[in-house]
Amino acid sequence: MTAADIHAQTPRPVRRGVIGIIERNGCLLVIRRAANVAKGGTWCFPGGHVEPGELPKQAVKRELLEELGLHVSPTERVGAVRVLDSRHVLAIWRVQYMGGEIRPAPREVSDFAWMTPADIRSLSSGLPSNERVLTLLDAR
Fold first, then answer.
1. pLDDT value at position 68?
2. Which among 23, 117, 21 is positioned nearest to 74, based on CA atoms?
3. How far separated are the first and last CA of the chain, in Å rounded?
4. What pairing do the DSSP bridges indicate for beta strands 88-99 and 71-82?
5. What is the CA radius of gyration of the chain?
6. pLDDT digit string (tens) for 52-106?
7. How many CB atoms lie within 10 A of CB 104?
8. CB-CB neighbours of 68 under 10 Å
9. To the nearest 5 percent, what fractions of the chain are helix, strand and coil?
10. Which of 33, 39, 110, 127 could lock onto 44 through a cystine, CB 3.0 to 4.6 A?
């Protein structure tokens, strides 16, 4: 067995993340990632990493404030998805808008939109995890 084989078989620690789902009039808030971040230019739901010592509920509040300037309150954990070909597991939270005006942080978000689930599914530049998130939302 080579060193590369051993490295490939070594389990990598799971990296936890969160997604915040905000709904308005049958549409969901989605963002386009800034060009300089991982998978830049793709559309996805807002969210990010859970920091060490942080609870997922705290992380979703922090991430939506940092990315979009929105104050939210998590209301329901919908489930979780594993990002394909990755060590990331994303907890999906429905959140209630509590205040703030949408102001994308340019280093992370290049655009935002309110889209129906059908619109999100039809995006050619959407993240593959979007479909799994929508499927979980549909099941609720």
1. 98
2. 21
3. 47
4. antiparallel
5. 16
6. 999 999 999 999 999 999 999 999 999 999 887 678 899 999 999 999 999 999 9
7. 17
8. 23
9. 25, 40, 35
10. 127
| Both tokens assigned to 138 | 């549909």
3-state class of 18 per DSSP? strand
Distance (Å, rounded) from C-alpha 46 to C-alpha 41? 13
Integer angstrom CA distances of residue 37 from 5, 13, 96, 108, 131: 30, 21, 27, 7, 21
Cβ count near 53 (within 10 Å): 6
- Single out the residue of 110, 77, 75 nearest to residue 91, CA to CA: 77
Architecture category of domain 11-138 in CATH = Alpha-Beta Complex (3.90)
Domain ranges of the chain: 11-138
**pTM greater than the 0.85 cutoff:** yes
In contact, 34 and 40? CB cutoff 8 Å: yes
% of the chain surpassing 90 pLDDT: 75
Say how far apart CA 122 and CA 32 lie, in whole Å. Answer: 15
How many whole angstroms separate alpha carbon 115 and alpha carbon 109? Answer: 16
pLDDT-wise least confident of 41-45, 85-89, 118-122: 85-89
